[in-house]
Amino acid sequence: MIVEVSAPSNIALIKYMGKIDSVGNIPTNSSLSWTLNELQTFVRISLREDFVQDQWQPLTRPGLDQVHLNEVSIQRFLNHFKSIKKEWKIEKYFLVESANNFPSDCGLASSASSFAALTKGAVEIFQKFSLRSGIGLVEMAELSRRGSGSSCRSFFHPWALWDKDGVRALEFSSPSLLHQVVVVTDKKKLVSSSEAHRRVSSSPLFKDRVERAEQRLTEIIHALKNQNWRALHKTSWDEFLDMHSLFETSVPPFSYLETASQEILDSAKALWDSSGDGPVVTMDAGANVHFLWRPDQLDQAKKLTQKFANKYRVVSCKEIREVLEV
Ligand code: DP6
């Protein structure tokens, strides 16, 4: 018996950073993300009567990039799988395989898509052995959250809001956005995002963090409703800088920003200053810089990308790739 599923990644404009309870990944503040349907993790789960324990290995299939997990990450992945298995009271062993449809060696392989796909696959295969009735998206997202917080948002699109009432989709009349990320480094992060969540509470800036994040969430939702691109950009910019300030003022401090990140941020800012328009910019707990564009900005996206393309790897959605090839 085999199941194969996939789930998308997501990029947050209001960041999940800091936890009230690390056991269930309960966040200190609400977060809001755009779902990256083009960046998917594929998971295949096979029942193995010959196994005495669950195992993970990279999924190999044409068009998919192999995931390379270290032992700690494999155990974290399998522990999440086992916790769902326990809940379903399944006493069998499985082979879990995973791969991404985006380059896995460029620091993009966030845990969001992989834990969302793992949760989806686990629920799908366990239901075949169990009398338990099926579960809905909300329950599946809650389950996934326990493995990795940001993965709960990957079950909803185009926007996902994760707040004290749980996680759900938000839709605005605005057009579908185009995503690209400038890959500054493919080196493994020295401080994992799980460690960052722990450390930020030591920052003196953390005291008012919830208030700032919730205020920005209100502003972003307002900007999306009113299609106010400039306001969306400004709030997104303030938000990622706020998160990075938390990192830099934690005890001990740490930073993901590299000279190259700054160079890319400066170029985006220069574009906004000179033309009054530009991409919505954000950064996660890493050095890479993400852009979201409106579909009518393809020309601008092309020009800005050409500035970096010979220096850094730029991973772009299909629409931007197409104009770059012309
Ligand atoms: C900076 O979901 O990776 O990307 O719950 O410990 O697995 P764990 O953390 P994770 O945190 C991601 C944080 C972030 C911002 C965000 O996606 O909201």
How would you describe this structure in keywords?
2 domains; Alpha-Beta Plaits; seven-stranded mixed β-sheet; 326 residues; globular; Ribosomal Protein S5, domain 2; alpha+beta; four-stranded antiparallel β-sheet; binds ligand DP6; 9 helices
Describe the fold and architecture:
With 326 residues, this protein is of the alpha+beta class. The protein folds into 2 domains: 169 residues, Ribosomal Protein S5, domain 2 (2-Layer Sandwich), CATH 3.30.230.10; 147 residues, Alpha-Beta Plaits (2-Layer Sandwich), CATH 3.30.70. The chain is 38% helix and 23% strand. Strands 1, 4, 5, 6, 7, 8 and 9 form a 7-stranded mixed β-sheet that branches. Strands 11-12-10-13 form a 4-stranded antiparallel β-sheet. A two-stranded antiparallel sheet has the order 2-3. β11 and β12 form a beta hairpin. 41% of the residues are buried. Bound molecules: ligand DP6. The site of ligand DP6 has 15 residues, from α4.
Per-chain topology:
Elements: E1 2-14, E2 19-21, E3 26-27, E4 31-47, E5 55-58, E6 65-66, H1 71-87, E7 94-100, H2 111-127, H3 137-147, E8 159-163, E9 166-170, E10 178-183, H4 193-199, H5 209-225, H6 229-248, H7 259-275, E11 280-282, E12 289-293, H8 298-308, E13 313-316, H9 318-325
Parallel strand pairs: 5-7
Antiparallel strand pairs: 1-4, 2-3, 4-7, 4-8, 6-7, 8-9, 10-12, 10-13, 11-12
Helix pairs in contact: 1-2, 1-3, 2-3, 5-6, 8-9
